[in-house]
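Can anyone check this?
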Amino acid sequence: MPVAALRRATRETVSGLPREFWWLWTSTLVNRLGAFVATFMALYLTLDRGYSATYAGLVAALHGLGGVISSLGAGVMTDRLGRRPTLLVAQASTAVSVALLGFMHHPVAIAAVAFLVGAASNASRPAVQAMVADIVRPEDRVRAFSLNYWAINLGFAVSSMAAGFIAEVSYLSGFLIEAGMTAVCAVVVFVKLPESQPRHTRTEKGGDEVRLGTVLRDRRFMGVVGLSFLVALVFQQGSVGLPVAMGEAGFSPADYGLAIAVNGVLIVALQIPVTRFIERRDTRRILVVSALLVGYGFGLTAFAGSVGVFALTVCVWTLGEMLNAPTQTGLVVRLSPAHGRGRYQGMNTMSWSVAALVAPLMSGFVIDRFGAEWLWGLCAVIGTVAAVGYGALMRHLPAQEPAADGTPAGTKPETTAAKPEGSPV
């Protein structure tokens, strides 16, 4: 009976989504299956090339900075040029820059190309998220975003394991394999995915109604972006603060790897049933609960004294991650007009990119000055602030996203929209 129930639940989770979504999902999975470079970049620079840890950190920061800058640029491209052209440009640029990075030897050249890789690889995210919103019905979007998030984590789990074996053979082969698999994603997009951007109205001057200034003046949305940054800042501690704190406490890298592996295993195993649980539930409550789970999950790390307890704390904040990721992305769609989804998703993506830059600085400063316990306490405080913020901002959440012409949700019938939301152009 449990097996039959699991099969039925899986069938209901994946049914009813358009064919275009599954091609996009396949492209995402293949992309993440080939994401080797980010996994072994530090080892490549320090062990294979002989550079210092400081230089490796600089390259990682430049890689992240490229992602911050491209988030907004790709969001504008997604709205102006379309989802499909932006995806093609981003994936083709990623394939070329990753392959090029494998042949760089001079430290300045490596740093410059790493910046380009960060910019190119991050540029596809606003387009993917906008395309999912375009082709999937509003009532199915949380499920679709959750499935896409599941593909990202499944691909990352496999690629992380494969990266170690590939690095033992040849670091260059890892660069070339990732470039090749990214090129395959571009081919899938080119052959199988039509442009999905809805038709939209223009102003009398011929410009887009939604500009970056429009997004910045949207106070509710920018509040959500700020809360997303806070949650992401805590999430990042799993990869920057946690290994440092465990190392200082006398645990080995293998102990950290064992504890953090729980994150990927839980997401792959539980994301689909968690999606079924949250799909029809109140967005505000889910975001509040997710922020508390993330904050206090890391906060409990202050009391961990064994690998098993560290793994239990990872379970707590991973559950918060599974609740937050698809719900937050779906919320951005609800708060953005159809013809401005690229810019809105780009701004949301940027909050995570900035958090990836700030988190290492924050964790290093707090651990060095005050100790790891203060870092985990700060995480609990940040999670609480984010939960309160979500509760306050989401009190009058629109029932649906604004119409394609920018009219706020609920002010005009759906039948007057320029094009049905579920059908690609």
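Reply from J.R.: I decoded it. Residues 141-169 form the longest helix (29 residues).
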